[in-house]
Amino acid sequence: MMNHSLKSRYKVQPGTAVVGKWHNNQYTILKELGYGANGVVYLVKYGSRHAALKMSDNSMSITSEVNVLKSFAKVQGTSLGPSLLDVDDWQTGGTKVSFYVMEYIQGPDLLSFLLQKGKSWMPVVFLQLLNDLAQLHDNGWVFGDLKPENLIVTGPPPAVRCIDVGGTTIQGRAIKEFTEFYDRGYWGLGSRKAEPTYDLFACAMIMINTAYPNRFTKQTGGMAQLKAAIKQKQELLPYEKLILRALEGYYPSAKQMRDDLLEIVTNQTVAAQPKPSGGGSFQQSGNKSSTQYTQGNQKKKQTNVAKQPLSRQTYRKKKKKSSWKEFFIIAAILGALYGGYIFMKLL
What's the pTM value of the predicted model, to 2 decimals? Predict the structure, then answer.
C-alpha cells in the first residue's frame, strides 16, 4: 500500500538542495523516480555524478534497507543491488528526514528489455537472476517484492540489476512488501514467510508475465488457472515443467532451479546445431558390427568407471569441466543474441 501522506509531506521540488546533517554532503534534486510504502526516491546530482536518494520519516525502515545494501556489498562477484553511497539526515522545516543515497542504475525494466530485444533473451536473463538470488539467499535474505519493475537490465553487455530493496526481508520473518500478482499467498499457493521458495515462486510468475505483459486477474486462482495460462502460450511450453515446479515450491534453492533452466537451454542449443553429414551415417551403417563392438566396449568401460568412487581430485576436475561447459554455453547464446542485435542495429 502506497504511503500517500509521506509523498505529500515531503514533496521536494526539483532544484532543492538536500544537505546531510552529519556528513554535510549536498545533493540537488532533479526529479522523482518513484515512491512506495516506506519512502520517496529522487534522482539527484552529487558533484558531477547522478545518484538515487531515498528519504523517509521512518528511520527504522531506512536502517533496514541500508543493512540490506551493506549485506549486498559483502557478496563478491555479483550485482545484486545498487551500491550504497551515503546515509544521513536532512533537517528541513524543523523536521528531521532520514535518507540514504545509492547508485543510480539506468536501463529498461525486464519486460521492456525483452520487448525491445526479443524474448529469446528470456532464459539468459533468468540464468543470471537466479544466480544472484542464490547469493542473496545464501546470505540469509529474501528479496520479497520481486517483480519486473524492480529488475533493471543495464549494458551492454546486458546485466540484470535488482533495485528497490524495500521488500528485502531476513529469512524466517514475514514478507514486508509484496505485489499481488507475484505473491504466492494471493494465489493460495503458500505463506508469506520469507524463504527462498517465495522468491522462486515470484520468478516463475515473472516468466509467465513475459508472455502476458498486461498480466491477468485471479479468477479460480490456484494451480489450475496458472497451468491453463502457461499452456495457452507457445513460448512458455519449453519451460512449463520448470515453471510449475517453482510454483509448487519444488525447488529448495535458486541454484537447483537455475541448474534445471541451464539444462533446458543446453538441450535447445544442441537441438539447434546442424546434424552430421551423410558420410558419417554411411560409415556407421557400412561397418555395423565394428560399431556395435566398439559401443559394447565403451559401455563396459563406463560401467567399470561408475563402480569406482570418485577421488577428490577427480571430483574437482569434473566440477571444473562442468563449470567451463556452462560458461561456454551461456557465452555462445549471448554471442549469438548480441551479434544479431548489433547486426539489426546496423541495418
Answer: 0.77
